[in-house]
């Protein structure tokens, strides 16, 4: 094999591996988040901590009494954010991913702490109070933190 052919085939192989890796990484970040459906007892939803893994720190929680889902975020310090997935611009539903929440209506976006990262929304997302113990995290649907 000529030197030129070797370099050419090596670069193509590297590009293929790097490209596949980037594509895989992109696809994983676009993968749908796990959805957990449940009902509340006395206005409190209880989510087992076993729903989370070291790789999976986001969970979409659905309750039939709410118009929109809740994005439950397990933070690195072990505390939780329970973010109501309703855009604060004009109340449209939000899409969630590992990088944050996005509104397809007019382009607002929010970080995993509920803060606005892209207008036109200017108000942070509604947060529900949470309380965790060794086995579960409770979401208080009628209370803000
Ligand atoms: S309703 Fe979400 S940006 Fe307008």
Keywords:
single chain, 145 residues, alpha+beta, Rieske Iron-sulfur Protein, 4-stranded antiparallel beta sheet, 1 helix, 11 strands, 19% helix, binds FE2/S2 (inorganic) cluster
Write up this protein.
By secondary structure, the chain is α+β, with helices and mostly antiparallel strands. It has 2 domains: 1-31; 35-140, Rieske [2Fe-2S] iron-sulphur domain (Rieske Iron-sulfur Protein). It has one helix spanning 3-30; strands at residues 35-37, 44-48, 58-62, 70-74, 80-84, 95-97, 100-102, 109-110, 116-118, 127-132, 136-140. The strands form 2 sheets. A 7-stranded mixed β-sheet has the order 1-3-4-5-10-11-2, with no helix packed on it. Strand 8 (109-110) and strand 9 (116-118) form a beta hairpin. The structure holds FE2/S2 (inorganic) cluster. FE2/S2 (inorganic) cluster binds next to loops. The site of FE2/S2 (inorganic) cluster (FES) has 11 residues, from loops.
Reported for the largest beta sheet, the result is: 7 strands, mixed
Question: Any idea how many domains?
Answer: 2
CATH topology of the largest domain: Rieske Iron-sulfur Protein
Residue share in helix? 10-25%
Instruction: Tell me the number of helical segments per DSSP (H or I, 4 or more residues long).
Output: 1
Alpha carbon gap, first and last residue: 67 Å
Query: Uncertain segments of ≥5 residues (pLDDT<50)?
Result: 6-28
Q: What fraction of residues sit in β-strands?
A: 25-35%
CATH superfamily of the largest domain: Rieske [2Fe-2S] iron-sulphur domain
Question: Kindly state the mean pLDDT as a whole number?
Answer: 84
Bound ligands: FE2/S2 (inorganic) cluster
Overall spatial form: globular
Q: CATH top level of the largest domain? A: Mainly Beta
Counting DSSP E segments of at least 2 residues, the number of strands comes to 11
């Amino acid at each position: 094999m000529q030197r030129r052919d070797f370099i050419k085939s090596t670069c193509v192989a590297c590009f293929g591996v790097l490209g596949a890796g980037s594509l895989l990484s992109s696809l994983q970040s676009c993968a749908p988040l796990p959805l957990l459906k449940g009902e509340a007892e006395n206005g409190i939803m209880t989510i087992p901590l076993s729903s989370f893994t070291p790789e999976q720190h986001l969970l979409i929680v659905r309750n039939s009494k709410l118009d929109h889902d809740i994005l439950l975020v397990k933070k690195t310090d072990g505390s939780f954010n329970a973010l109501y997935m309703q855009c604060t611009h004009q109340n449209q539903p939000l899409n969630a991913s590992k990088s944050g929440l996005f509104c397809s209506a007019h382009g607002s976006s929010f970080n995993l702490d509920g803060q606005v990262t892209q207008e036109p929304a200017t108000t942070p997302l509604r947060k529900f109070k949470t309380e965790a113990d060794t086995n579960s995290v409770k979401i208080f649907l009628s209370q803000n933190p």
